[in-house]
Design goal:
41% of the residues lie in helices and 24% in strands. It is an alpha+beta fold. The chain is globular and about 60 Å long. A hairpin with a 6-residue loop joins strand 9 and strand 10. Helix 5 packs across helix 7. The strands form 2 sheets. Strands 1, 2, 3, 4, 5, 6 and 7 form a 7-stranded mixed beta sheet that branches. It has 2 domains: 175 residues, Ribosomal Protein S5, domain 2 (2-Layer Sandwich), CATH 3.30.230.10; 167 residues, Alpha-Beta Plaits (2-Layer Sandwich).
């Protein structure tokens, strides 16, 4: 067994396709430069000790095989070891030293960055025959089954399989993936609004529940199986359910259209889809906030920017923007400063 193993994993930004993955739909994420880095050292006993640069100076610990939820960030570590054991692995004791610059609660998948980075280290330490796809599936189960966050599989898939300079078109039903380069005519900008969100409870879980109620009313298990031609049936649902279904169904179509726009280098079409997506999240899924809307509005008014939308689960987080090539750095600073002046929130530029 190696003495020490180091591994890392990036955060991700979703270019388009929000709240579609748990309906087995389509998503279009890309990785970001920020990384979570994990150093794992084996122990002679079954104790697992974990330290995070974000969680103070104290080490947290438990015994492998005796995981108990309810311990904050340590639950992601516990979730990983619990799922590995459930899959038949013999999990040894180890010390895990975690450092990360992926912001928490910004909608850029800090939790998946942690679980995937840890799993990459354990894959080497434990000599696991896990493909990158299987590793993402384990990370997803750790977050859903152990932590209790009702998230889809997009985040760990993007984090495990993504590469710099490209987007991934993911069919979350079949797990088919198509790699699409980011057109050279645009640069991505991501600005954190300063409002953190939680996936394990709150509005995210409510929206998910409402969307599945809408699916049941439409006679399907997942809204992936409702196409845009069924809008008349959707509109006949009770108001809230109609709006939830309308967002998911139309967002699925926007993802496919955005993939075509990326392939064709059609940045104007991509920007228009960003605008449509944000309006749908704001009005139909109701997951935006006035601060997020302000950040999107500031982007719309900037001559160097082409489009913007909320990214992530909503109720805070970050905005992803399309900037004209060569303008991202100066434009992002300008937009951040105006956002801070308008809202009083500590906006942070994550990309570039």
């Amino acid at each position: 067994m190696p003495e020490t193993v180091e591994a890392e994993a990036p955060g991700r930004v979703n270019l388009i396709g929000e709240h579609t993955d748990y309906h087995q739909g389509f998503v279009l994420p890309a990785v970001i430069p920020q990384r979570t880095r994990v150093r794992v050292t084996p122990r002679a006993d079954r104790r697992v000790r974990a330290w995070s640069s974000r969680a103070g100076r104290d080490w947290q610990e438990y015994e492998a095989g005796h995981e108990r939820a309810g311990r904050g960030w340590l639950d992601y570590v516990q979730g990983v070891t619990a799922v590995l054991a459930r899959r038949g692995a013999t999990v040894p004791g180890f010390d895990a030293h975690v450092e990360s610059d992926v912001p928490v609660g910004a909608g850029v998948s800090s939790s998946a960055a942690l679980t995937v980075a840890l799993l990459r280290a354990l894959r080497v330490l434990m000599r696991l025959s896990l493909s990158d796809l299987a590793l993402a599936e384990v990370a997803h189960l750790a977050e859903t089954d152990f932590v209790g966050a009702p998230v889809g599989i997009m985040d760990p898939l993007a984090v495990s399989l993504g590469r710099d300079g490209e987007a991934l078109l993911i069919d979350t039903r079949t797990l088919a993936i198509r790699r699409l380069p980011i057109p050279p005519a645009v640069e991505l900008v991501v600005i954190d609004s300063g409002l953190t969100h939680q996936h394990a409870d709150g509005g995210y879980a409510i929206r998910r529940q409402e969307s599945f109620e809408a699916a049941a009313c439409l006679g399907v298990s997942h809204l992936r199986d409702v196409d845009a031609g069924a809008m008349a049936r959707i509109d006949a649902l009770p108001d809230v359910l109609a709006r939830r279904a309308r967002h998911v169904v139309s967002e699925n179509q926007r993802v496919l259209s955005a993939a075509k726009a990326l392939s064709a280098g059609d940045v104007e079409r991509l920007a228009a889809l960003f605008a449509e997506s944000h309006a749908s999240m704001r009005d139909d899924y109701e997951i935006s906030t006035w601060e997020i809307d302000a950040l999107v509005d500031i982007c719309k008014r900037d001559d160097d920017m082409l489009g913007a939308r909320l990214t992530g689960g909503g109720f805070g987080g970050a905005v992803v923007m399309l900037a004209k090539a060569g303008t991202a750095r100066t434009a992002s600073r300008r937009i951040k400063e105006e956002y801070i002046a308008r809202t009083g929130r500590p906006g942070v530029v994550l990309i570039p």
